[in-house]
Structure formats: C-alpha cells, structure tokens
Amino acid sequence: MARRTALTAAEADEFGRALDQLREEVLAGRGEGDARYIRRVIAVQRGLEMGGRVVLFASLLPPAWLAGTTMLATAKILENMEIGHNVLHGQWDWMCDPEIHSTTWEWDSASPAAQWKHSHNYVHHTYTNILGKDRDIGYSLLRVKSEQRWHPAYLAQPLYNLALAAVFEWGIALYDTEIERAWRGEKSWGQTWAQLQVSLRKAGRQAVKDYVAFPLLAGPAFLPVLFANLTANVTRNVWAHTIIFCGHFPEGAEAFTEEQVEGETRGGWYARQVLGSANIDGPALLHLMSGNLSFQIEHHLFPDLPSNRYAQLAPQVRALCERFGLPYTTGGLLRQTANVWKRVIRLSLPGPAPAVADSATS
Amino acid sequence: MTVGRILLDAAASLTTPLLPDDYLGLIDPLWSRRGLRGRVEAVRREAAGVATLVIRPGAGWNEHRAGQYVRIGVNVDGVWHWRPYSVSSAPRDPGGVISITVKALPDGKLSGRLVEGVPPGAIVRLEKPRGCFVLPQVLPPRLLFVTAGSGITPVMSMLRGLAQGGEMPDAVVVHSAPTRDDVIFGTELRELAARFPTLRLHEHHTRVPGGPARRLTMAALPAICPDWAERPAWVCGPPGMLADAEAWWRRAGVADHLRVERFRPAEAPGGGTGGRVRFARSGRQAQAGGNTSLLAVGEDAGVLMPSGCRMGICHSCLAQLTSGRVRDLRTGREHGAQGELVQTCVSGAAGDVEIDL
Closest residue of B to A29, CA-based? Predict the structure, then answer.
C-alpha cells in the first residue's frame, strides 16, 4: 500500500456525485443504438463460431485448419469477454430481452453462470481489492500483492501461473466453487460438493462438444478438429488470463485493508475502484476483444453500464481523477503484462515489506 | 416428438450452452423456438386511431381459439415492451397469419407506436395464446355479444370463425362506439349481418350532436334483445361497462351465463412514495416507506430475499415485479412494467407493489 486515497470525506462525496452524474448521462441516452450494438456483436460472434466450425471440417488442409481455428478462437474470446461477462453483469438487462439477460444467460466457459455471478459480480465487484475479502486477489493461488503473507509454495508461482493461463476457464470454474473456504470451515462441504457437481456437469458438456462431438462429426479430420478446438480454447484462456491479470495486478493498482474501508461511503467506494484498477491503452479492436475490460476503471465504477459506453466515459473519468488528484493507472498491453509477470516473479520470493499505510499523508 | 425435434435435441450437444434455435434464429428469427416471434406482414388502417397488424407467427405457435388474447412484445428504443391484445382474426387462417387490432390510447406509448410506427417486416415477440373468453366446443343455439370500442376484437374473431364455417347460430351483437364511422370492423359487421339472417347487429352510437355522451347501459338490453337472460353472453369493453354487466346479470340470477374479457391497464398508476408491498409467493406483506429498499422491506417481513452487494451493482437481487411501480432510490426515477425484473436493493415502492417472491 504505497499510498492512500487523499480524499477528505467532503471530496469523496463530491467525487461520488460527479460520477453519479456521468452515470445518469449514459442512462438518459441509452437506447436503440446500444441495443443494436450488442445484437450485432452476438450475431457476429455466432456467425464466426458457426463459420469456424464449418471450415474446420476441411481441416485436413492446413490453410483451412488455420482459418477455422482463428475464427473459432476469435468467437470464443468475443463470447467470453464482450458478451458473456458483460451480459452476466446485467449490462443489457434494461432491454427486457429474455434472451439477452443476466438471469437467463449461460456462457461458453467451464464456470456455470450462477456461480460466476456470485463470486464475480457480488464478491469481487463489491469488495474490490480488500485483502481477506476480495478472493480475486491472486485467486487464492498467487501472491500478487506484497501485503499477502509469503509461503514457500509461492516459489513455484511463475510456473503454475503459466499453467493457469492455459487452463484458465477450468481454474475459474474450480475457484468459483470456493473450495478453500470449505477447507477453512467457512462454508459447508455439502454445498461446495453440490456446486462442484454443477460445474462438472457443465464443464463436461463443454468438453464433449469440443473434444468428442465435433471431432467425431469430422470423421477423417478427427484429430485436426480436436487439436483446433484445443488450440482455440487455450488461446481464449491465455488471452482472458492476460487481460484479467492486467486489471488489478499491475503496479499502481492498490490493495486495501478491512480497517481502511470501514464506514466507507459511496464516494469512497468509487475512489477504491479507481485506485484498485488499471486500464490498458490500445486500439478499438483491443477494447472489443478484451470485452472493454481495457476500461477496467470505468467498468469497476459502473459495472452494469453497457460496455460500449466505457470508451466515451474514459476521458471524463480521467479528467475527474485528475481534478481530485487520484492516480489513473493505464498503459499498453505489453507494458502492463510485463509488469504483472515481473510482480508474479518478484512476489514468489519473500518480501518486499509492504509500504506501510501512512495515515499522516492522507 | 417429431424427428426434427429429436435431431435438434441431438444438435444441442453441439451448440451447448446455446440452443440450436439460437443459431436458427440468426438465419430467420421466426425459426427460433426459444422465444416465439412473429413478423408483421401488413398494417391495415381500420378507423381513426385503429390499425390491424397482420402477423406471421414463427415456429412453436399454437393455433388460437376464437376470443383468446396473445401477449405481444414490441421493441421501442431498444427495450422490449409487452402488452396483451385479443386476436381479431379467425382461427386456422389458411395463410397461417393472425391479426391483432390495436386502438391508440390517448397516453398509450405502446399502442400509439403499434398503430403508427410498426413497419411491415418488423419482428415482434409473441407468447402463446391464452384466455378463456371463448365459445364452448358445443355451440349453444342462441348467443349474445355486448361490446364497446375495441372490445369488439375478440368477438370479431368468433364471428369470423363462425362465418367461415358457413353456419351462423342465432346471434345478437350489441356494439357501442362514438359514431357509425368509429365502429371498428363496421363495414364487415354490417356485411355479415346482411349475409346471415340469424345474425342481428345493433349499433349504439354514444356521440349525439350538441348533447352529452349517451352511454350504452345494460338497462337498455331487454329492449334490444328481449330474451337476453336466456342467452349465454360474451361482454367486452371498458371497466365501467363490465361492472355494469356483472351487476346486471347477477341481479337477474343468471351470472353463470356471463363471460367477460377485461383489458387490463398495462402500467399501474405508481406516483406514490411508499405503499403496501406484497410478496406473492411467500404470502407476506408490509407497509413500506418511499425511501426503504424493497430488499429491506422483504427481509424485515421475513421473506427469503436474494441479495448481494446491496448497492445496485451486482444484479443478484433481481425479482419480478408482478404489479405496481418502483422508484430507483439512487436517481429518483420511477419505472416498472408488469413482469419487469427489478433490483430490489435500490428500488423503493412508488405506490402499492407486488413482488414475485
């Protein structure tokens, strides 16, 4: 915790009001254009997925294999990032469309939507970066903040983080069942086992589709299709892992203690979202493929506003942060990723001592 | 189960977590059975402020029975709005289409849009036809219909169905409208009456030049149709007329002859701050202030409420509003249509509300 938010209570209130105002402006203009956007992304994604799988029937020919795999990987990334994650947040609930709604959506990821919504929408987005409350800090697996106590197992974390990247969706599915909480006795084993069964059933269906059904249909192209689907899934996993790790783990994204957030106001919550998140700079394609999580700060301030609006909010949020003297962490994808990996490697070793929160500076 | 359906179910293992219908719907929205859809094929003007929409329902549609209604969803500025409308066409249309006939209400956002602004080709959502305002399977020898305004729409479906069969039982239609020109389906009704001697049409026009409106009351029935009490009756019109009819038939001791169809207002009045909150499934209720979240009201009343962040960001607390309007406690904006999923943690009651919990 290098620094603390330097906002007084009055400033935090004002900061909160200004952000509420921004939110209101988006709500007032939300309409057909936004609805058309998400419907189009969904249509493109489904078209890419169908197209990719059809092309893969010819995957005995290497160019077809490459084209099909690229299309399928792109479709899977769009489905998870710009569609699934954001629909499950309720960003499109306002359309009252029963087929594009957080309560009915299921995504192409091993984790069942209901479990994901609990651990992500509720726990992570409410208690963002609070040590001991936000399970997303290192996903109960990694040491990504110097405040986390070191353990010899972390010595291997550069290695197992690499493995995690490849199987990210499975890791998240397992993580969403909160096994470590059952281990600590905070949650019953019965409930955890029931959740695990739901996850296994869903993950099983996903696996059958990609690794049995489609390869069998392809007949002689069984192996190329199997390998193509595996490649698409791993590509999607590595990409999701990269984008998500850039959201809260780079230098500049701060962690908080429970004492720090006691009695937190709405303005204080907003400030914590800014301080705990980091954006990624890049072209429009990067924003689309990251599900607009490249606007992690804006997403954390307004998790249920439509993702296509984050780009227009970003300069306004940044200006507000400058006005209130709050750091707005952002950087290119390569720089942020390198920064995250540097931390994962550094923090696998003991230390450094966390910069003690200096209440005098606040 | 058809062979096609079995194949689709097998295909579901290829499309999981989506359904084959999600992909079929991309090619033609009418092919998806996941949410029933219809395509508007024509919009016909019937009278001032009244239009008939001819709709081709997609896969999964069940044939309606004459007199039933259908809930139809229309996209307005990106948001789906649902309203029930009686089907006005005869069942088993040879062309496979249905019609609904809509009257633009003075402050009806959606009815106005349906009458003026739906272009042919537009996709609407549909639910399966519902309602028991229908003719019995075995047709009684004598029938009575009393309707006012757009209340003629379900009866028109029945009359059209009977006319198509070529045999019209002894039927009396008493219809009220402001003027002769305002009678929806006026020309067709008069033609039917001319074609079938057994069909008698009595038009009641309420607008009298220079005088006050002359409403149709049930007290006028015996003069129009002396054997009214012996006829099974179907009555559809504004709430005042239905109340009059219910009292009239009850007083005569023949309430079991009467069937009414009520067009419910789509939006509850709202406008209040606080109100009585009913939790339909748990059977509990409580009085709520305007600044208390429905979540807190429910928890205090001992209802098992889904919840999460309690600050309006996580959408874990969504619950269905079955009636009434709510106010967003963050912005003060009032909203809420029947069936809408609301965030209970940031919604307060704007008048009496009912929640499906």
Answer: B77
Cβ B100 vs Cβ B72: under 8 Å: yes
**A interface test, pick of B315, B329, B330 with most A CB neighbours within 10 Å:** B315
Please check the confidence at residue A337 and state whether its pLDDT lies above 90.
yes
What's the pTM?
Answer: 0.92
Which residues of chain B are within 8 Å of residue A98 when distances are taken between CB atoms?
A: 35
CB A125 within 8 A of CB A132: no
User: What's the whole-number average pLDDT of chain B?
Assistant: 93
- Domain parsing of chain B, residue ranges: 1-34, 37-126, 142-261, 275-355
- Which residues of chain A make contact with B22, given a CB cutoff of 8 A? 46, 99
Which tens digit of pLDDT belongs to each residue from A291-318? 999 999 999 999 999 999 999 999 999 9
Residues of B in contact with A261 (CB under 8 A): none
Task: Specify the amino acid at residue A315.
Answer: P
Contacts of A20 in chain B (CB under 8 A): 330
For residue A238, count other CB atoms closer than 10 A to its CB. 17
Residue B53 one-letter amino acid:
L
CB distance B299 to B313 below 8 Å = no
In CATH, the number for domain B142-261 is 3.40.50.80
Peptide bond into B140 cis (omega under 30): no
In this predicted structure, the answer to whether residue A362 has a pLDDT above a threshold of 50 is no
- Is B178 in CB contact (< 8 Å) with chain A? no
Q: What is the CA radius of gyration of chain A?
A: 21
- For B315, which of A20, A36, A121 is closest by C-beta distance? A121
CA proximity to A140, closest of A86, A195, A177? A177
Q: Which of the 8 DSSP states describes residue B222?
A: H
Report pLDDT digits (tens) over B98-139: 999 999 988 777 888 899 888 999 999 999 999 999 999 999
Please choose, from the candidates B330, B307, B329, B319, the residue with its C-alpha nearest in 3D space to the C-alpha of residue B354.
B319
Please state, as a whole number, how many other Cβ atoms lie within 10 Å of the Cβ of residue A104: 13
Instruction: Find the residue in A nearest to B307 (Cα).
Output: A122
pLDDT digit string, tens, across residues B52-68: 999 999 999 999 999 99
Give the strand pairing for B347-349 and B341-343: unpaired
Out of 3.40.630.30, 2.60.120.10, 2.40.30.10, 3.30.300.30, the CATH code matching B37-126 is 2.40.30.10
DSSP letters spanning B186-207: HHHHHHHHHH-TTEEEEEEE--
Average pLDDT in chain A: 94
What kind of fold does domain B275-355 have according to CATH?
Answer: Ubiquitin-like (UB roll) (3.10.20)
- Count of A–B CB contacts within 8 Å? 100
- Map residue A268 onto helix, strand or coil: helix
Distance CA B161, CA B149 (A): 20
Q: What's the whole-number mean pLDDT along residues B13-20? A: 91
Nearest C-alpha neighbor of B170 from the set B232, B212, B113, B221? B232
Contact B16 A96 (CB under 8 A): no
